[in-house]
């Protein structure tokens, strides 16, 4: 399941409408629709707010964990790391950002599929 699918599944599981979420986040409905369809990715602050609303961890939304909940310390570390990554990528052009996210996703997938030593 990708990020968009998890966002939609969490929203539906929580019983929220897109309108409710967009009002809570003060974003356009089209933005949320784009996140859920996978056409766009939310910035880290928006992703963090969505995780709070759905009462799941950011790692769960990103597919880095199958566990919906992390300890507070784990979630704090993930939040700090996410902000650092976003800060670095934000220095790039829009096209370079897209490529950087794709490379990061491929690297994470590679690491997850590696055989343990």
Automatic annotation (TrEMBL):
The keyword Iron does not apply. Residues 7-61 form the HTH cro/C1-type domain. InterPro entries: Cro/C1-type_HTH, Lambda_DNA-bd_dom_sf. GO terms for molecular function: DNA binding. SMART domains: HTH_XRE. It holds the Pfam family HTH_3. SUPFAM superfamilies: lambda repressor-like DNA-binding domains. Residues 78-105 form a coiled coil. Gene3D superfamilies: lambda repressor-like DNA-binding domains. Keywords: Coiled coil, DNA-binding. PANTHER family: HTH-TYPE TRANSCRIPTIONAL REGULATOR XRE, TRACRIPTIONAL REGULATORY PROTEIN-RELATED-RELATED. This is Transcriptional regulator. It comes from Bacillus thuringiensis serovar pingluonsis.
């Amino acid at each position: 399941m990708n990020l968009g699918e998890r966002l939609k599944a969490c929203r539906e599981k929580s019983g929220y409408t897109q309108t409710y979420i967009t009002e809570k986040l003060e974003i356009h409905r089209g933005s949320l629709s784009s996140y859920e369809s996978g056409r766009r990715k939310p910035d880290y602050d928006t992703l963090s707010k969505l995780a709070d609303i759905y009462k799941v961890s950011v790692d769960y939304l990103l597919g880095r964990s199958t566990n919906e909940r992390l300890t507070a310390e784990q979630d704090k570390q993930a939040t700090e790391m996410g902000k650092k990554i976003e800060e670095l990528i934000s220095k790039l052009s829009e096209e370079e950002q897209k490529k950087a996210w794709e490379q990061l996703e491929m690297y994470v997938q590679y690491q997850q599929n590696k055989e343990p030593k």
